[in-house]
Amino acid sequence: MTEQDIEMPCPMCSVEGQLKMLTHIDEIPYFGEHTQITVLCNACGWRQTDFLPADGKKPGASTLVISKPEHMSVRVVRSSSCTVRVPDLDLEVKPGTASTGYVSNIEGVVNRFMDIIIMVTRQCYAEDAPMEDIKTLQEMHTTLLELKEDPIPRAITLEFLDPHGHSQILSPDAVQRDLKPEEYEELPVGPEPAVFSANS
At 170, phi and psi to the nearest 5? Predict the structure, then answer.
């Protein structure tokens, strides 16, 4: 792993001289060699991580039907430009301006969705939302929770859509395809890449 100082103020707290860039090159099965880049601020703790493949990638989608317990341990690489969807439940997480990448597994992705559902459910209770909306959220949470059972009672589809092609579900059971032109046009690309001046 290499570490470099970045000669610019932190984009969050604006403190000078506290930004570091860490780069780490690794090999991920099915994905190949990639570089993990993390920019962090020692002053406020802000950090952003992304993953870049060594070889050029084109816009792509990676889809897995989660149908057996073994799928929960499947590794995933999600870059800051990736939209994650569970179409069966009409769930979607798009990259925003503060989006960050991660390496995890299917269970980790499912847990992230469940955490969001719990947070939204609490907001609905606090705002006296219709019970029908709360019930829908609870049913979504139950369906995701049941993916951890053996056998899984209901198969669910998970999609990674990345206009930069840096994300993938790393399983022989996953289907890889190019993004359709209309999908590419609709998808957000996440945070703008920053231009850094670094000292070795």
Answer: -95, 70
Q: pLDDT, tens digit, for every residue of 59-104?
A: 899 999 999 999 999 999 898 889 999 999 999 998 876 677 888 9
CB 165 within 8 A of CB 113: no
Q: How far apart are CA 16 and CA 192, in angstroms?
A: 20
The enclosing domain of 170 has a CATH number of: 2.60.120.1040
Share of the chain above pLDDT 90, in %: 50
Parent domain of 133: 2-199
Residue ranges of the chain with per-residue pLDDT less than 50: 193-200
**In the structure encoding, which two tokens stand for residue 75, read together?**
């590794």
d(CA 101, CA 77) in angstroms, rounded, equals 8
Task: Measure the CA–CA gap between 109 and 156, rounded to whole angstroms.
Answer: 13
Cis bond upstream, residue 163 (ω within 30): no
Amino acid at 26: D
Query: Sign of the C-alpha dihedral, residues 127, 98, 117, 180?
Result: positive
CB 81 within 8 A of CB 163: yes
The total number of structural domains that make up the chain: 1
Structure-block tokens of residue 63: 């889809």
pTM strictly above 0.70? yes
Distance of CA 6 to the CA centre of its chain: 25
